[in-house]
Write a structure and sequence with these properties.
This protein is an all-alpha fold and 103 residues long. The protein contains 6 helices and no strands. It is globular. The protein starts with a helix and ends with a helix.
Length: 103
């Protein structure tokens, strides 16, 4: 089990938890829209650090992005396994061909 898989399981376990005792539960309790907003904020912070070129800060922000992505997915009942299956489906397919197939 990878750290990402364990994190996804932890996030799933926080659904319905007391928002006063869990940041994840607090985010999920605010709804999918707030989770998406928070993901967007973290993505922008990662972009800023990528442009600045600070590897340590980019690494930390990337971890935040992954966490908030998993929270956003959980808020819409999309599992990491479903995302991984989609990535596996695309594996070996040219990005240009895959995008063209989507229309």
């Amino acid at each position: 089990m990878t750290a990402l898989t364990r994190l996804a399981a932890t996030i799933e376990s926080r659904k319905g938890a007391d928002p006063d005792s869990s940041w994840t539960a607090k985010l999920l309790n605010k709804g999918p829209e707030k989770c998406a907003e928070k993901f967007g904020e973290e993505a922008v912070e990662a972009i800023i650090e990528a442009v600045k070129g600070d590897r340590a800060k980019l690494t930390a922000e990337a971890a935040d992005v992954l966490y908030h992505l998993l929270v956003m997915l959980a808020a819409r009942d999309v599992t990491l396994a479903e995302v991984m299956a989609e990535l596996e489906r695309r594996e070996g397919v040219s990005g240009i061909a895959e995008k063209a197939a989507r229309g």
